Amino acid sequence: MLFGQSKFHRDGMIGEIFVFLTHTLPLFGKKVAVKIIGLKTFDRMVFLQNYCFFRRNPFLQIFYLGIVLSCLGVVLYCAFPILPLHHKIGCWTTIGIVFFVFYKASTSDPGVITPDNIEQFRYNYRYDGVIYRKKFCKTCKIVRPARSKHCGICNKCVSRFDHHCPWINTCVGANNLKWFLSFLLSTGLMCFYCSIGVVEIYYKTVMKFSLYKLPLPITFQYLVVYRGPGLMGLLLFTFLAGCAVWLFLLYHCYLIARNKTTNEGFKYSVAKEMHQYNITVLKEKPKRKKCCIC
After folding, report:
1. Residues contacting residue 19 through CB under 8 Å, at least 6 positions apart
2. Which residues are tagged catalytic?
3. pLDDT band, residue 1 (cuts 50/70/90)
4. What pLDDT is stored for residue 280 in this prediction?
5. Which of the residues 70, 123, 219, 262 has the least number of beta carbons within 10 Å of its own beta carbon?
């Protein structure tokens, strides 16, 4: 799914698997579903699917808050009674910062362009003639400024459009990029801070009962039983989630250093492939032979 459309895998087995999973299999599933549940019920399911995946909705926001609150519950039940005072203060401070940044990232204006405020965005960037040209948006009734894009999910044009983020239920654009990066940073710090706190608890337990003298598997089993499986699950989850969030944050820092957005990176790669394809076609095009009359 991740590499099926890449230039390297497009014509190989992975590309064929990608087409099967994204085109052939859904069409077959649609025919079977229509025969089993009927066309009207199927259309309602499609409407629900479109709302969940292609319209603004708070599902992932609720899911994110549920994850954070669940992890907080595990901390309060398993770890909070044995944490030192500075970690207790740090825990509540971190949670407060995460919730504040999440609220700002979810509610800040990404840079929505309307006929009333288009003048403040019109000359911010220049058209490059490659992926950005003057184009009229029929929905918003404006000539889109350079580096802007109409988001099909929000149904609005956004200045310096990066991508639509379902975790904050809004687009990431020129005006709220700082809050989106702060959201990633605060979430990544929260995950690693939680992991470090659990590791510190385990370290003190090992030193207190001299568990380092025992074989590693027995020490691991003792920690899981003595401190509870919830704490071990919290450690694994926060560490893996933190790694994913930090990688995503580093990727966006790389894009900022290159003065690109996620949308532009994708568009430039497509434009580059098309350019290379056109050059190949022109090179392989047979030259017409001149007719000579003897």
Report:
1. 4
2. 165
3. very low
4. 65
5. 123
